[in-house]
Write a structure and sequence with these properties.
Order of helices and strands: HEHHEEEEEHHH
Strand content: 25-35%
Shape: globular
Distance between the termini: 10 Å
CATH superfamily: Mannitol-specific EII, Chain A
Helix content: 40-55%
CATH topology: Mannitol-specific EII, Chain A
Number of helices: 6
Number of domains: 1
């Protein structure tokens, strides 16, 4: 499974202005729910609950907030580039690249495969640097698609 198979093209956002981790999670819920047809409060609550288990800020300016959500039938992914925000990352650095993943409540291995795929992509410092420079969502999608080679 390639990331672009689950990444919604209309959910790639660049240079979103948020001031905190909480505001970032609220924004994710707000902008994604009209596209996937869910309640933004449920998404926000699920994300906050997941963050209570430990931060999804994986370091080097990257976060992968994710949660299971009742009522979803498919995996869903979005990408958001934000002004750097404190995300309580494991390395203490602010986050500016965020991949957001929602999965069905009963999701099995596909959930873990998607997280691993996104994590692998974002460990590539050249890809992260390029994502910080793209000018349009279309450029971001093309970059992600090219960098995420099926093996």
């Amino acid at each position: 499974m390639k990331i672009t198979e689950i990444l919604k093209p209309d959910l790639v956002f660049l240079d979103v202005d948020v001031a905190s981790k909480k505001e970032t999670l609220e924004k994710i819920a707000e902008i994604s729910c009209p596209v996937i047809g869910c309640d933004s409060r449920n998404v926000f609550d699920a994300l906050v609950e997941r963050e209570r288990l430990g931060t999804t800020g994986i370091g080097k300016g990257v976060a992968i907030p994710h949660a299971r959500l009742a009522g979803l039938t498919d995996l869903f992914c979005a990408f958001m580039r934000v002004k750097p925000v404190d995300f309580e990352s494991i390395d203490g650095k602010n986050v500016d690249l965020i991949f957001f993943l929602l999965v069905p409540e009963e999701s099995g291995a596909d959930h873990l495969k998607a997280l691993a795929r996104i994590s692998k992509l974002l460990r590539n410092e050249e890809v992260c640097a390029a994502l910080r420079q793209v000018k349009t969502p279309k450029e971001a999608l093309a970059l992600i698609d090219e960098a995420d080679k099926d093996e």
